[in-house]
Amino acid sequence: MLSIAASTDLEVEQLDVKTTFLHGDLEEEIYMQQSEGFMEKGNENLVCRLKKSLYELKQEPGQWYQIFESFMVDHDFHKTQSYHCVFVKRYDRGDFLVILLYVDDMLIVAQDPKKI
Predict the structure, then answer these.
(1) How confident is the model at residue 25 (pLDDT cuts 50, 70, 90)?
(2) Is residue 5 predicted with pLDDT exceeding 80?
(3) Alpha carbons 112 and 38: distance in angstroms, whole number
(4) Which of 1, 2, 17, 22 has a C-alpha 20 to 30 A away from that of 31?
């Protein structure tokens, strides 16, 4: 994509989504040991049920992708057939916007910098 952008004089932006993995809703019950400093005397054997995601849960990248994909589709982007992490939006006058997602990093490419 960078090669295409350079050879056709497209605008490119890169960004990293902060706290990506802290917003997903869990679809299954997940429990964890209590963190140090939060244990009450006499209740050291209790566990915590997670209501939201935490970093390093194996479920989290999938949850993040579902949220992202849903948002993109709601905003008239189309996922490419070959690469499910590439989203394209076409505008009436032939302009387009391409977003490439890699975990929590994005590369955004467009003809018009205002569209980015």
Answers:
(1) low
(2) yes
(3) 51
(4) 17
CA–CA gap between residue 27 and residue 81 (Å, rounded): 27
What are the tens digits of pLDDT across the range 81-99? Answer: 999 999 999 998 889 999 9
> What's the token pair of residue 113?
């910098």
- Any idea what the Cα angle at residue 98 is, between residues 94 and 99, rounded to 5°? 160
Torsion, Cα of 58, 64, 70, 72 (10° steps): -140
pTM: 0.71
Q: Which single residue is written with the structure tokens 């997670």? A: 50
Residue matched to tokens 């209790």:
46
Q: How far apart are CA 98 and CA 106, in angstroms?
A: 10
